[in-house]
Design a protein that fits this description.
About 50% of the residues lie in helices and about 25% in strands. The chain is an alpha/beta fold.
């Protein structure tokens, strides 16, 4: 599987951007440059570590969701954490672009805004937040809204 990658230091957090194919890299780059994606990560993560953001097609997204969540479909974002503590984190965030694009269209949102939301969402999972309880969801959603507002995006939970 071809991939291209770029790395940088983001608040002492090494961020790598990967694309499952050159065609996918072209599609994502038309929406957001790797520099912009790293800005979204920088706004979400405030500790050192290693983070990979990988953009995949529906086949790889479905395979990962099946293997790790026993769900037989591709989902928008998966976060795989390898270590969470107050000093450092390590995680992979996998975004399935066909699902991201389809959801954005179905919800009447700009694909770029939805993508930014899901990058932030995945980063917050990497930092240990979740939405498994009502209180956890409330905290996580409030953080997402605040981060996205600072990035110039509207509240992703407001239905248009």
């Amino acid at each position: 599987m071809p991939k291209t990658a770029t790395s940088s230091q983001v608040k002492a957090c090494t961020v790598e951007i990967q694309y499952a194919s050159p065609a996918l890299e072209k599609k994502v780059s038309a929406l957001a440059s790797s520099t912009l994606i790293k800005k979204w990560v920088r706004a979400s993560i405030n500790r050192p570590g290693n983070l990979t953001v990988r953009f995949v097609n529906r086949t790889e997204g479905q395979l990962l969701n099946s293997q790790f969540r026993t769900k037989a479909y591709a989902t928008n974002v998966l976060t795989f954490t390898y270590g969470i503590n107050q000093r450092e984190l390590a995680a992979d965030i996998v975004l399935c672009m066909p699902v991201v694009t389809s959801e954005a269209r179905d919800q009447g949102k700009a694909v770029k805004a939805h993508l930014a939301h899901l990058v932030v969402h995945g980063c917050l999972h990497a930092a240990g937040l979740d939405h498994m309880t009502q209180q956890g969801a409330k905290v996580m959603e409030a953080r997402e809204v605040a981060i996205l507002k600072n990035l110039g995006f509207s509240d992703p939970y407001v239905i248009n």
